[in-house]
Amino acid sequence: ANGTPGTTTVHTATITDDDLPPTVTFTAGSQTDAEPVATQTIMVALNTESGLNVTVPFTLGGTASNPADYTITASPVVISAGATTTTITITVVDDTLDESSETVIVNMGSPTNGTQGATTTHIVTIVDDDLPPTVTFTTASQSNAESVTQTITVALNAASGLDVTVPYTVGGTASNPADYTITASPVMISAGATTTTITITVVNDT
């Protein structure tokens, strides 16, 4: 009013933020669950809201195998602007193998628009719920003539995720090594297998 625009008619005011980025932490350092657990949740949290999306990468370790033992939310996860938490979900595979407890170790990487907080590693322990397999000889007896090698099959009713060690003792009227030799005790059925053998080599005396 009562004037005309000059050469500079636009003014831009830039407000420079003075706030520190939020810290990112796992709300717990570990958890333990037994098969069959459908899902396990790891909470990722900020210490305060942010006006920016906070991207949180992570890497995996531990003794459990992905995807044989579990599946997990893909890295990275994002805490959206204005929110303070997100989750990483682990889905446990309920297998049938007898095995030791296994771990999933989640290690936080360097967040974008945030900094690492106090807890950056979360360990999930999966406790196995399967019974150990039963071990049996597939036959109770056999008869063979001298000079014949005889095999005893030792079998499991189901495969195991662990090595199964089977000791045995020897008796009877034949003498070792005068009449025969035999595989040394114990024998082992390796993890994933279901059988092994004990071999008796008969001495063909006169």
Share of residues in strands: 35-45%
As a whole number of angstroms, the C-alpha radius of gyration is 32 Å
> What order do the strands of the largest sheet run in, or round the barrel if closed?
6-8-3-1-10
In total, the number of strands is 17
Q: Which class best fits the helix and strand makeup?
A: mainly beta
Give the N-to-C terminal Cα separation.
132 Å
Main sheet: strands, sense, barrel? 5 strands, mixed
**Mean pLDDT across residues:** 93
What shape does the CA trace take? rod-shaped
Number of helices: 0
Low-confidence stretches: none
- Provide the helix percentage: under 10%
Helices and strands, in order, run as EEEEEEEEEEEEEEEEE
